[in-house]
Write a structure and sequence with these properties.
single chain; mainly alpha; 77% helix; globular
């Protein structure tokens, strides 16, 4: 018997857009260009694409299969397939959903403010002035906390509507609008004087770099995070799938949409960025989106509208991801604890808001949270390290081992062959059993090594 509040997708298109919306977010439009810049351009792009299709797509398919077979939240689905301690992999994903949302919602709030700032021309002047403006903004505690509340309240309002009437309806509206804005902004960026230099950087790889382990590790980590793997989101969304839906076909659409958005973001940022004298493509983090790009918008004809459209797009991408982040723990409270959807959503939104406050204060508003004693980093950075860099890869490693060796790939294929077969079944079996665990182990090894110095 289905738990009260549990739903089903109304259509294949609805599921694909919702799952793609979960994957598409700040990781695509901010994180991907940042990693491309750090990784030296087109070489990173090439390695990233290989990682997406050989490592991340098989795990995405596996997560959807677990969700549909188990018909519950991440922990409940793993328990339904193989009772025992493997449900802890799902519990980790549930905790990651709350942990990531607590700081992700803070950054999403920044994007809302920058719609107004760029539209009114408030972000202008020298690079130093723009940087100081951003620093002053993120140190404004009442404003950043208020914007975080807006993000979480909006997300909660959508999810309370349920799977079909809330999540699916909203993502059906947001995703096409997001894709349209991407196309418009990409067309504008590609026609800027001097865009050719950015295109050359983005499209002409230095093949000597593609075997650089730091680039491979960064590309694998970015692909993993970009597709929302290891946090239980795709298990949760898979649990709402029609029993007759072909999982491999649906997953392929999600991968193509998510990867296309990331690539299109690069076609916006690098051609535009290289029109700025002295542009450094390795600029990362908030500096890329909230300092470098506003400099460009301020000097372009119609730059206020261009900039506002960019941050509207960024906000849309962020909201489609916050929806899935909150839905993961919501599904757990509904399925495994018997809560109503309204109780679960409101409680989780409130708890997440309280957890978000240190991240909102950790950017200059509070000296303590801006540089934690004994840690040497801001609270937001610490949360990102714990959940993005460790929890997600560990969850993904556990999931791939579970599907490949515990549930067994041949049993999982029985679920995947429903609805029209599973193309490349033998290849998928090899990838999920051997390649995916090894690749994720590499991520974890290099993450630990870099952290320890």
């Amino acid at each position: 018997m289905a738990a009260p509040g549990r739903g089903m997708w109304g259509s294949r298109v609805g599921f694909i857009l919702a799952a793609a919306g979960s994957a598409v977010g700040l990781g695509n439009i901010w994180g991907f260009p940042t990693q491309v810049g750090r990784g030296g351009g087109a070489a990173f792009v090439l390695v990233y694409l290989v990682c997406v299709f050989l490592v991340c797509a098989p795990i995405l398919i596996a997560e959807l299969a677990v969700g549909r077979r188990g018909r519950k939240d991440p922990a409940g689905s793993l328990e339904a397939i193989r009772p025992g301690n493997w449900k802890l992999v799902g519990v980790l994903g549930i905790c990651a959903g709350v942990g990531i949302l607590s700081f992700y919602s803070v950054i999403a709030g920044w994007t809302i403010a920058y719609i107004y700032f760029t539209l009114t021309g408030a972000v202008a002047g020298s690079p130093e002035a723009i940087g100081q403006f951003f620093g002053g903004f993120v140190a404004n505690a009442p404003l950043t906390i208020g914007l975080t509340f807006v993000v979480l309240a909006t997300t909660a309002g959508i999810i309370i509507g349920g799977v079909r009437d809330g999540i699916e309806r909203m993502t059906k509206a947001l995703m096409p609008a997001l894709l349209l804005l991407l196309v418009v902004l990409m067309a504008r960026s590609l026609t800027l004087p001097g865009a050719e230099a950015g295109l050359a950087y983005y499209l002409k790889p230095d093949f000597s770099k593609i075997f650089d382990m730091s680039i491979i590790n960064a590309a694998l980590g970015q692909a993993f995070f970009s597709l929302s793997l290891g946090m239980g989101a795709m298990i949760t969304y898979g649990s709402y799938l029609d029993p007759k839906e072909n999982i491999a076909r649906a997953a392929a659409w999600v991968v193509v949409l998510d990867t296309s958005v990331a690539l299109m973001a690069g076609f916006i940022i690098f051609p535009a960025g290289f029109t700025i004298p002295g542009f450094d493509p390795s600029t990362s983090g908030p500096g890329l989106i909230f300092a470098v790009l506003p400099r460009l918008f301020a000097t372009m004809p119609g730059g206020e509208l261009f900039g506002a459209a960019f941050f509207i797009m960024l906000t849309m991408a962020a909201i489609t991801s916050t929806i899935s982040l909150l839905e993961v723990p919501t599904s757990y409270l509904i399925d495994s604890r018997g809560w109503t959807r309204q109780q679960a959503v409101l409680t989780l939104a409130g708890v997440t808001f309280l957890l978000s406050i240190p991240s909102a204060l950790g950017n200059g508003a509070s000296a303590f949270f801006s540089s934690l004693p004994g840690v040497g980093m801001a609270f937001l950075d610490l949360m990102a390290t714990v959940w993005n860099n460790f929890a997600l890869p560990i969850g993904g490693l556990g999931l791939s081992v579970f599907v490949g060796w515990v549930w067994r790939a041949d049993e999982a294929l029985k679920e995947l062959e429903i609805g029209g077969g599973m193309p490349g079944a033998a290849l998928w079996s090899v990838l999920i059993r051997f390649v995916c665990p090894a690749a994720i182990a590499i991520i974890i090894f290099f993450t630990v090594r870099d952290l320890l110095g």
